[in-house]
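re: ur question from yesterday

yeah so i grabbed the chain u mentioned. its 330 aa long if i counted rite. heres the sequnce exactly as i have it in my notes:
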Amino acid sequence: MRPLLGLALFASCGAMAVTGCAANAALSRTGPAATAPSTRAPASSQAPSSSASPSPSATPSPRQRAEADAAAIRASFVPPPGARRLTAAPGAGGGVLKQPVQIPGTPDLVDDTSWWQAPGQPTAVLAWEKAHLPSRFASDGSSISSQYGVPTAWSDEFSLPAVPAVLISRELVVEVVSAGKGQTAIRVDSQVTWLPAKPPGERVPAGATSVTITELPGLSRGKPPAPVTITNRDEVRRIASLADSLPVFPPGDYSCPADDGLAVNLTFRGAHGQVLAVVVADQTGCGTVSFTVGGKSLLTLWDGETFVRQVLKVAGLHWPGSQTGVMMPG
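ran it thru and got these structure tokens back, copy pasting raw so excuse formatting
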């Protein structure tokens, strides 16, 4: 069984977890549940986006950006001397190259694949490729598959930085196996995951005239401060704008740090006191944010810790427990 690696991002866990937890953003994208993490090294901070330029007549969707980026990444692969491209996955190595050695655990993925055959031994071919890839790619790990203790396949992974709020991960994975007679079979995967676009309706209604800010202290936090209601129209608008700008929580497999339940609840009301929207931002765990408009739960958002800090600054509040997501001693 070849490993399937999940996307290593953070998500939120239940409020009662105090020692750490795992989470999974369901495909319905309504909230997290559990699985194991994937680890990967930091990407280079110098790499430019390889996404194609948008059409003058339309802005490309996140998926279109990912498709263009994956094609550009695949084109960055440098065929070794004497290599020829194959039209399908070769049967070398027992057909191991018919499946990717790893794949991010998200449905929002483009995996652009090609196969090659080149002269030389697998490890030499892989080393040649690593030495000749464009410098914008950062080495992001390697693996060796073996059978009965004998190595049978080798792979290297390379990465480009994420494109903020659009492309979550951008990877080039090269796997090699012996094809016999001094030849090496190669599988090349350019894997790009994107952040789904937020629906236009996921916004605080324009009629909001006040917002009540309430701290949910969680475990080991002591007595929370009294709720505060903001009625200054400019401050309400600025806080609503912060909520509107939160990104969608990306689907996939996640590992969460400890979540002790610390959160802040924002209730937006209209001129007659009716509840228009409720935003609950977790500050520990993975910082997910729930968003309810007109009593309807919308897509889960994230970056709760940063959001809370910004809200408190706008409101002129100094709540020690809500200034940081780092757990305090009990």
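noticed a couple things. The chain has five helices and 16 strands. also The first helix runs from residue 62 to 75.
anyway ttyl
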